[in-house]
Amino acid sequence: MNQKAVLRVLVFAVAWFLVASMSVLADDSAASIAVGGLVPRRETRIVMAKEVLRINVKTIVVEYDFRNDTDQDVTTEMAFPIPPYTNEIDGPEASEQSFSDFQLEIGGIPVPYMTEAKATLNDKDVTALLLADHIDIPTFGHFVDTINSKHEEVIDSPDFSRLSQATKDQLVKAGIFELDPAPVGQWTVHLQYHWTQIFPAHSTTRIRHEYSPVAGFTQVTQATVEDALAQFTNSQSASGNPEEGKLLAGFCVDQPFLSTLARQLQENASQAKTGNEGPVTSLVFPQWVDFILTSANTWQRPIEDFTLIIERPQPEQGEKILISFCSPADGKVEKLDADHLQVHLTNFVPASELHIGFFEIPQAKAAPPAAK
User: Fold this and answer.
1) CA-based nearest residue to 218, from 288, 282, 269
2) Rounded to whole angstroms, how far apart are CA atoms 361 and 268?
3) Which of 229, 269, 292, 285 is nearest to 35 (CA)?
């Protein structure tokens, strides 16, 4: 048995906004973008007395109680660091990669924050050059890739397109933009949201932030599921995909989880032979959300009171969803209700990150009785 405490819960739910739109293609997949909590700049005097982390496939909400036990007010710069990102036409939009819907509350009141954006190209800082030409760095010059009213694809970087031809030529020559044939920014964005925070002496400060995660998604074949199950039962394995097998292992899947998954796929295959309504597939569609727990270690350790709450997707079309993840610090997983699962820890020092898998299984509908 895996040494980590693992959640294996089968819940009846449905596809959510991203998975529902997925095409059933072998190469239809994407990676998630992992971010974490708030970090201070060189400040370890503040205790994270409490953290409540709520995760679903659409929203991450983190609530903190920070306590200053010293005799003096502590003023520090706090930040929400974002992983560097580039402009890939077939990747997530810049608004997703930049977590542009990030919201901050202090003491229950929404507060503004500062944005610091830098740009590099081949490890060279090109921030000043882009700013001089009034090109927005986080959005790659307000890059758009959309379909117009004539059902034509439109790809453009308006901040580039309005420049003089001579300036355009300079930017293309420098490799900052490529014309393929539309202008596409080639720099890497280094973005950070930050603000100055005061922690009064001998008091607790409550901070809350919220954002939409960039979830990863792919598909796994029935053969891979059966191959992973065979490793527990010592039976003959199927010809599963090794990479898909590694993906399953990353969610700490166990025998009951895989057995349920395999049984449902077999039922789908059986219904496909006897007739049904709607699409049936021998694929399962995992979607996952990542969170960097160890960012909490930049504060004074440990987290005195930590709670993780995971919310399942809501019913829409009748799919089934299985959830699997490695519980942090082998914490006990409790079912709060039909839609919420919880892990509660005290004096917690994160040693690994969160990787939460939501596995959608399309459900076949029985064919209606033949008309007499």
Assistant:
1) 288
2) 9
3) 292
Task: Name the residue ranges covered by the structural domains of the chain.
Answer: 6-64+212-366, 127-186
Q: How far is CA 301 from CA 21, 45, 298, 312, 331, in A?
A: 42, 10, 8, 30, 18
Q: Which tokens is 150 given? A: 């004539």
339-349 burial, b for 16+ CB within 10 Å, e for fewer?
eebbbebeebe
pLDDT band at 266 (very low <50, low <70, confident <90, very high): confident
* β 220-221/303-311 pair status: unpaired
Residue at 356: amino acid letter: I
Alpha carbons 39 and 295: distance in angstroms, whole number: 6
On whether the CB atoms of residues 172 and 179 are closer than 8 A, the answer is yes
pLDDT of residue 24: 29
Helices (H) and strands (E) in the chain, counts: 7, 26
pTM over 0.85: no
Tokens of 82: 């974002």
Tokens representing 201 are 């002496």
